[in-house]
Automatic annotation (TrEMBL):
Cofactors demanded by this protein: Mn(2+); Ni(2+)
Job of this protein: Metal-dependent phosphatase that shows phosphatase activity against several substrates, including fructose-1-phosphate and fructose-6-phosphate. Its preference for fructose-1-phosphate, a strong glycating agent that causes DNA damage rather than a canonical yeast metabolite, suggests a damage-control function in hexose phosphate metabolism. Has also been shown to have O-methyltransferase activity that methylates glutamate residues of target proteins to form gamma-glutamyl methyl ester residues. Possibly methylates PCNA, suggesting it is involved in the DNA damage response.
Endoplasmic reticulum as UniProt keyword: no
Enzyme Commission identifier(s): 2.1.1.-, 3.1.3.-
Coiled coil: none
Record note on domains: Subfamily III proteins have a conserved RTxK motif about 40-50 residues from the C-terminus; the threonine may be replaced by serine or cysteine.
Record field: catalytic activity: beta-D-fructose 6-phosphate = dihydroxyacetone + D-glyceraldehyde 3-phosphate; beta-D-fructose 1-phosphate + H2O = D-fructose + phosphate; L-glutamyl-[protein] + S-adenosyl-L-methionine = [protein]-L-glutamate 5-O-methyl ester + S-adenosyl-L-homocysteine
Name of the protein in its database record: Sugar phosphate phosphatase
Recorded superkingdom: Eukaryota
Native organism taxonomy: Eukaryota, Metazoa, Chordata, Craniata, Vertebrata
Domain Damage-control phosphatase ARMT1-like metal-binding, residue spans: 23-126
Keyword Hydrolase appears in the UniProt entry: yes
UniProt GO molecular function: metal ion binding; phosphatase activity; protein carboxyl O-methyltransferase activity
Length: 129
C-alpha cells in the first residue's frame, strides 16, 4: 500500500468525512426500501416474509446506529463462503491498529465494503422459511 503519510492522510481523511454522512444515508435508504416493499414480502412469503423483513430492518437499524456512533467493527456470524476471509481481515486490522477498528478510524474502502457485507449478512440470515 501507499507509504507516504501525507498521501494516506489525504486519501483517507477526505473520504472518511464524506463516508460518515453518506453511509448512514445509504443504510436509511435500504431500510426505507424494505419498508416500502412490505406488501410484496407478504404477497410472496406470507407472514414469514413480514417477519424476515422486520428482523432485517432491526439488524440494519442497529448497524446504522453502530456506524453513527463509530463503534468497533464486529466479526461476521454467518456461514457464507467469504465469512472466514472477512473475519481474518478484521483480525488483521485489529492487530495492526492502536485500538479496535471502528467505522471512522479504519480505511474507508474497507468500512464501506464491510457495511455492504453486513447488509448481505442480515439478508442471508433472515430468509423467509
Amino acid at each position: 500500500g501507499p507509504t507516504n503519510p501525507t498521501f494516506v492522510s489525504i486519501l483517507l481523511t477526505s473520504k472518511l468525512h464524506k463516508g460518515s454522512t453518506e453511509l448512514p444515508v445509504i443504510l436509511t435508504r435500504v431500510i426505507n426500501n424494505l419498508e416500502q416493499h412490505k406488501n410484496e414480502f407478504f404477497e410472496e412469503h406470507g407472514e414469514k416474509g413480514i417477519e424476515a423483513e422486520k428482523k432485517v430492518i432491526v439488524l440494519l437499524t442497529k448497524l446504522r446506529d453502530e456506524l453513527q456512533a463509530d463503534k468497533p467493527l464486529t466479526s461476521l456470524n454467518d456461514s457464507l463462503p467469504d465469512t472466514t476471509l472477512w473475519n481474518q481481515c478484521l483480525e488483521y486490522h485489529q492487530k495492526s491498529s492502536d485500538g479496535p477498528p471502528s467505522w471512522f478510524q479504519s480505511p474507508w474502502l474497507y468500512t464501506e465494503c464491510y457495511m455492504y457485507r453486513r447488509i448481505h449478512e442480515a439478508l442471508a440470515q433472515n430468509q423467509p422459511r
